[in-house]
Amino acid sequence: MTVTFPVPSTTTSRFAVAADHIPHDLAEFVRSLPGAYGPHIAGRLGTPQLHLRREDLADLRWDPAQIKAVHPEQRPTERAFSFATGFAIVTSTAPVTDQPRAAQVARAAAHALATATRGIAADLVTGQILQPIAERTTFVLADGWLGDILPPYRANGRCTAAEPDRDPEGVNGCSCVRLRTSGLRRFGLPELQITDVACPHDLAALNVLRTTARHLLSDHWSWLATGPASRTRTISANRHLTETDFSEFWGSTRREHLQPSAPFEALLTPVTPRLLSVSPPRSFAGTVNDWLWGDTLPPGIRDVLSSPADTPLPKAA
User: Could you tell me the CA-to-CA distances from 120 to 108, 191, 295 in Å, in that order?
Assistant: First the structure.
């Protein structure tokens, strides 16, 4: 069984910086900013790979109020962004073979501009406020590229599904959760989603999406490196995912486990040409929640919520 999807020749990343004062000559201002990406920024400025422009509130074709905070402590920042009146838009349209560097350079320019203007940076592809940190030189998918967040609260407080370790009936206690990525398209891949997930398994489902995304991205870049002429790609719908894929999502090989876990399978099913559903393999006798709660997934996939690269991974409460 296979899945075929379109591969664009170019992809676009867009970032916004909200600040009290946006410089008029953005290109010259950004060119003078310090940072590891300075030479890359200078070399791409004025090309489609790095385009800067000022926008006033009356000129916007997007809604700042739709940009959301990833973490609760960012809510004041979210409100400040939504009420801003001046913006700098950083756009990168680059060959798919220039990824992820093109997207990193554009985001580095947005970060540097936000720092210099005491502004707030946001990713217009994922619709999220960016963490106020400098862009690292290595690429780590966990650095906010995937738009991967958990629902803020179980079914807006209506869900009463029990935790399965306290009540075996709770394994399939509900089907409230649907998770979807929102950043893979800038790397030339379809987005991923997982549906019909019970609330107690939302973190495991999220980490399955993260693992699948990292697996597909590594495989896709290897394919692009061969210089294919085709604008479509066909891959196996059955994907063998490993603990290494999960670790590489975080940019870390330092993982807490007693022994290496065996690969686990996931099935990809097209929803649209640019969206794939992730589910248990056809050979699995049970629901998506039985799969997420079962013993085939690697250690940590049910309790690791976030992690900086190469540090011990924190546990979810």
Answer: 13, 26, 43
CATH number at residue 38: 3.30.1400
Structural domain including 158 reads 154-293
Cα separation, 120 vs 115, whole angstroms:
8
What is the bridge-based pairing of β-strands 275-279 and 191-197? parallel
pLDDT tens figures, 11-26: 999 999 999 999 999 9
Rounded to whole angstroms, the Cα distance separating 134 from 127 reads 19
> Do the Cβ atoms of 239 and 209 come closer than 8 Å?
no
Number of folded domains that form the chain: 2
**pTM for the whole thing?**
0.91
> For 120-138, what is each residue's pLDDT tens digit?
999 999 999 999 888 999 9
